[in-house]
Design brief:
Length: 510
């Protein structure tokens, strides 16, 4: 867990008031629900520049925390149990609108991500970044604040390009994922890094990151990886030091809470899923990429009692995870399998009564509402490098992650004898575990590996409660954008949903 220094990390209450329900197509910055202490005049006042930048960061962080919770449904981690959250752990084609943290069960994040982007820079040129570059003379401080603004512009655009089929910005025309990711990369290369060069490297406020340069380069590695530029991503990843993490900072107050902890560990709206052998065979369609039937059970599923064998194996050659105990407990105690596997503490869970008499497993990845959430870490970068390098280099990089987690190194294969599939499966399973509950990281891997990683495609029901599974690989924007944006109206309104990506990645609508 990230060490907490509350006095250093606590933000002013004014920054925490940020919320929005109408950010997607706002006509001006003042349409964003902003802190009550900011007036219309304040937006044009250079003295408020730092406050506006930190407010945009806080808005992004609130949305990202909610996204990290909802993303567990797209990663096959959870099944909803409590009716109040009956839709959160089944795939959904569009993100929820509204405020991100009005309650433990609030699921919205889209308005916050879009709102942070609009506050920083927009087509009208009245974002705080726009004004710092074009209107205000802030000297060296302007370079520092501009660097932070550019980093978070890249983070918002990278998120949109990574998880959505199409995006529109400021009532503009449809942009494809690659176009949005290109914009995100440009914000790092042409803006953030240039501002950092002008000012010098610095630590971001509130212990977000120890190095602005490392944070910018790490985000660019993720952006390039999502776009399929594995060589460029690996080159960036090599430039970030081992141990580096940039954080989504959290607190124990409204809009600053850790939603995965609040909604699951503390409130317990769902239970964790075992290996997927429950997908109804009567509705199964084949893998849309390979055309072949899906195996039964589904590979790379199940988060209960994950383990690592003494030889470092975490996944078998068919794609099924190694476990150290049975998926069901007896008298609240795990039943060991006796296979010698060590528990993988990166995917922790515990039994609790959620609904009905039987205990269910709840995740315990985070310990409190004010635990920070990794935004991008060296662990993800090491896995990007492993994917690019393959062979023994990939094994060595995974061993670095294992050593940091106190787990056995990989000796069941070596670079001379391992097949490309064994290396690929090792990396996919390591990513699923090492980045557990860190904001859709396995979801993103599923988007990039649809030939082996399963999406339900609106087929079947959850195993215990029987909720209908929805469709989703990538997302579409909320329906309002397709119905009100003139460019998308000309494309057929709702018929334009999901047209910006390949059919195998497009969401499935009811």
């Amino acid at each position: 867990m990230h060490p907490l220094v509350p006095s250093a990390r606590r933000r002013s209450g004014a920054v925490l008031v940020l919320s929005s329900v109408t950010l997607i197509a706002c006509e001006s910055l003042i349409d964003v629900d902003t802190p009550h202490v900011l007036t219309d005049e304040d937006f044009g006042d250079p003295a408020s520049a730092e406050f506006q930048v930190e407010s945009a960061v806080a808005l992004f962080e609130c949305g990202y925390s909610a996204f990290a919770w909802v993303g567990l449904g797209h990663e096959d981690v959870m099944e909803s149990v409590a009716g109040v959250a009956s839709s959160v752990h089944v795939f959904r084609a569009t993100p929820a609108r509204g405020e991100c943290d009005t309650s433990a069960s609030s699921q919205a994040w889209f308005d916050q991500i879009m709102g942070a982007r609009a506050m920083l820079s927009n087509a009208r040129g009245d974002g705080v970044y726009d004004r710092m570059r074009n209107e205000w003379s802030l000297g060296a401080e302007g370079a520092r604040l501009s660097a932070i603004g550019a980093i978070y512009m890249a983070a918002t655009l990278g998120h949109l390009g990574e998880f959505y089929c199409e995006v529109t910005l400021d009532d503009g025309d449809l942009l494809t994922p690659d176009e949005v990711l290109d914009m995100a990369e440009e914000w790092v290369t042409e803006r953030a890094l240039q501002h950092i060069d002008a000012y010098g490297d610095f630590a971001l406020p509130n212990q977000i990151a120890t190095s602005a340069r490392s944070m910018a380069v790490a985000l660019r590695a993720r952006i390039r990886w999502a776009r399929g530029d594995l060589q460029g991503a690996a080159s960036d990843a090599e430039a970030v030091p081992q141990g580096f993490t940039a954080w989504v900072t959290r607190e124990d107050e409204r809009t600053r809470r850790n939603k995965p902890y609040l909604a699951e560990t503390a409130s317990g709206f769902g239970s964790m899923l075992g290996v997927n052998d429950w997908w109804d065979p009567s509705v199964r369609r084949p893998n849309p990429v390979t055309g072949l039937p899906w195996p039964d059970p589904i590979p790379f599923t199940g988060y209960l009692f994950l383990g690592v064998l003494p030889d470092g194996r975490a996944v078998d050659d068919a794609g099924y995870p190694i476990r150290w105990a049975e998926e069901e407990r007896v008298n609240s105690d795990p039943v060991p399998l006796g296979n010698g596997a060590a528990p993988d503490g990166r995917v922790e869970h515990f039994p609790r009564i959620v609904a009905g008499p039987d205990p269910r497993e709840s995740p315990s990845r985070y310990d409190s509402e004010f635990d920070d959430i990794p935004l991008v870490s060296w662990r993800e970068l090491w896995l990007i490098r492993a994917e690019h390098e393959g062979g023994q280099a990939a094994i060595d990089l995974v061993d670095d992650l294992r050593a940091a987690a106190g787990l056995p190194p990989v000796t069941y294969i070596d670079g001379a004898t391992a097949t490309p599939q064994q290396i690929r499966y090792m990396i996919l399973e390591e990513r699923r575990r090492a980045l557990f509950s860190e904001g859709g990281r396995h979801w993103s891997a599923k988007i990039r590996n649809p030939d082996v990683l399963w999406f339900p495609r609106a087929e079947g029901r959850t195993p215990r409660q029987g909720y209908s599974l929805r469709g989703g690989v990538r997302l579409s924007m909320p329906d309002e954008e397709y119905l009100t944006n003139p460019f998308l109206q000309a494309r057929g309104g709702l018929d334009a949903r999901g047209t910006g990506c390949e059919p195998s990645e497009a969401p499935v609508f009811p």
